[in-house]
Amino acid sequence: SSKIQSTRVGMDAAAIKQSILEHLVHTQSRFPDVASESDWYNALAHAVRDRMLERMMVTAKTYKANKSRTVCYLSAEFLPGPHLANNILALGIWQEVQEAVAQLGLDFESLLEEEVEPGLGNGGLGRLAACYMDSMATLKIPAIGYGIRYEFGIFRQEIEDGWQVEKTDKWLSYGNPWEIPRPRLRFNVHFGGHTEQFKDIDGILRVKWIPEWRVIGVAHDTPVMGYGVKNTNLLRLWSSEAAESFNFQAFNTGDYYGAVNEKVTSENLTKVLYPNDEPEAGKRLRLEQQYFFVSCSLQDMVRIYLQSGDPLDQFHHKYTAQLNDTHPAIAIPELMRLLVDRNQMDWDTAWHVTRNTFAYTNHTLLPEALEKWPLDLFKKVLPRHLEIIYEINSRFLDEARMKIHGLNGHLEKLSIIEEGARPQVRMAHLAVVGSYKVNGVAELHSELLRQNVLPDFHALWPDKITNVTNGVTPRRFMLLSNQPLAHLLRERIGCGWVTDLDSLHKLEALADDPDFQQQWQKVKRRNKERLARHALAATGQKIDPDSLFDVQVKRVHEYKRQHLNLLHIITLYNRLKDNPGLDIPPRTFVFGGKAAPGYFMAKLIIKAINSVAEVINRDPDMDGRLRVVFFPNFNVKTAHCIYPGADVSEQISLAGKEASGTGNMKFALNGALTVGTLDGANIEIREEVGKENFFLFGMTEAEVSALQQQGYHPQDYCQNDPELKSALDFLASGYFSHGDATLFRPLVDNLLNGDPYKVLVDYRSYVDCQARISEAYRDRQEWTRMSILNVARMGKFSSDRSIQEYTNNIWKIASVDVF
Ligand SMILES: CCc1ccc([C@H](C)CC(=O)N[C@@H]2O[C@H](CO)[C@@H](O)[C@H](O)[C@H]2O)cc1
Predict the structure, then answer these.
(1) What pTM was computed for the model?
(2) Contact 192, 55 (CB under 8 A)
(3) By its UniProt entry, which NCBIfam families does this protein fall under (predicted)?
(4) Which atom of ligand 1 is nearest to the CA of 327?
(5) 445 labelled catalytic
(6) Predicted-complex ipTM score
(7) What is the torsion angle, in degrees rounded to the nearest 10, for the CA atoms of residue 457, residue 461, residue 464 and residue 466?
(8) Of 174, 388, 408, 571, which sits most exposed with the smallest number of CB within 10 A?
(9) Ligand 1 nearest-atom number relative to CA 371
């Protein structure tokens, strides 16, 4: 076999130590006595990388030899998190690396701290893509993740005077040992211009696209290792380069700016991630970014395919491509262009190939997050694709007209083109028409997709819209980030759970075992102490692990209702001020999450949380009773110490708004108990863990839409609930803002005169539920039992189960052993 017997990939501590020292000299060109922590980190990273590369090459060779059917996961966002620890675990050399590092007198934890994570995503959608990449490799599914190598990822969040401040994320400034540049893997991507029709040699009418400008897309590969298997898949990210990096004509005429203008504009394409999570910006650069990575990815897939020598009209047998929301949906007309215009395939065959290649996952119901591109903008950027979309749409409407055989205006609602003052392209409709399968990300969400968002498509194609409930990888979110728990589990139920999460069920039998409960509480205690240490380092605020840690971490958005959590805190504060003798278990409220920079209300909510925290944390009456901290820069790395340290997981979105949630799964898998509404995957978590082990409150989705129908007057709820009224009055009064009664006026007004996310309706039910939680927390034995049963029954929420469902129900793809 082509295995290279390299001495530099030994898996024992001595070989690893040797590798680290060799990389310190040969890669970092530093002697040990002058090496910085970052030099040692890079040396270790390269030593680990060495032990991954051959697996990556053997994997590619095996897939090629087997002509394996491959899934391409097209996503504008990936949030892989820091790589070092995860790769060491996947290689199974955790002990050996610990030993090597110790022998070199280095501190492993602080080496891990050196890594800056690739923040190439906003939140749930991007992290899910990363969990799925981990599971596809672990399940030995041939897969390629295709995305954008943003030079600047999601902004680093700092809190100044309680306000979010965005700092540029220069994640690449110290280099990135985990990517392999592929400078020769480059594709032209064209933009703008116009199209011309012509007859080809056989007299067939063809269309030529004369673009206005082009850029070059260059690949950068990051190996994604499966856990406990040899399979190492690829995350292939594209960055843009200027076709012509220097325009001498312009330079010679002294137009120095002109000389480099193309270079600048071209590189701007992949300069920065759009930090919006839900409301879409509709910006031209965003559309160009989407087309750029999609065109590079499809050209790369066709390149790999043509190496097989198989006919292109069988392309969909080799590949299936998953569209991670509508962001890559332009892939549908782009594949049509590559097949028809570039490879002279006839339209019908090309359309058959295309609609049997793509599947589409929807991640949001919020109308403002469903992407629509104005026709005029689309025509300017992608004139040929607009023509193809017109053709797809007219043929689709013909098919629909026949099938519906009714003239009741359904066609207008189905059309990919939204008529009106400023006609738009509905990317969700294009994605549904051009895909063989569509799925939501939790049962309620998929049902609401069928009933509310895509009812006409559901009527037209009753079995096209299915469900695959989200999942999370137990490798990063248990084994890696909660080692005390992992050790206890290994001791009591073995290690099978790491790749077979259902085997957590074995814990059921231990739920009432006093000794095991003891050990369980010790594990949680250690994780709370770790969270307290990180919170102190990040905020300067001391928090007491003896108190109940009540945690809400996720993007800040009104539908996620961080402000409902805040109203409960103010209520508790008022109760304790009014009645210092009130006996409630001490509570520490931990918040974390970024707000889209342009989202005023979300940023005001962050300010309100920090303002309330400031008053409570320095109020002597609250010592040992109440503490509030806002953990800055919530990301995958900080999540490692937050999820394991929580007692209570806040999943309090308005029912019908959170498509699934994945943080809810990570908390429960780390022994936190959930307070939540019947929304997204909360419903399925409650079904699995048992109603008695879940703190439920609030309206159901049906009650929400009924209230919406009948009309809602938030003031009524305020008038009828003195505690609610007083909490709002306190917020409005300036009590928490140094007497400035104007600062939070917009927030309170928004709640009293609209309250689109029905905070005031669910307030009472929430506050009462929280009181139940306080009572439950008094009985540590019962609480611990509920915590153990939660973990025992969360097996369903492994991303391995999700990927198994995609594989069996959508992709129809086989796993491939790599030796
Ligand atoms: C166009 C701007 C934009 C950017 C990102 C998005 C994402 C779809 C938002 C997102 O991350 N949605 C979350 O996806 C998770 C993974 O499926 C779900 O668990 C969350 O409920 C959903 O909010 C929408 C619109």
Answers:
(1) 0.97
(2) no
(3) P_ylase
(4) 1
(5) no
(6) 0.98
(7) 70
(8) 408
(9) 1
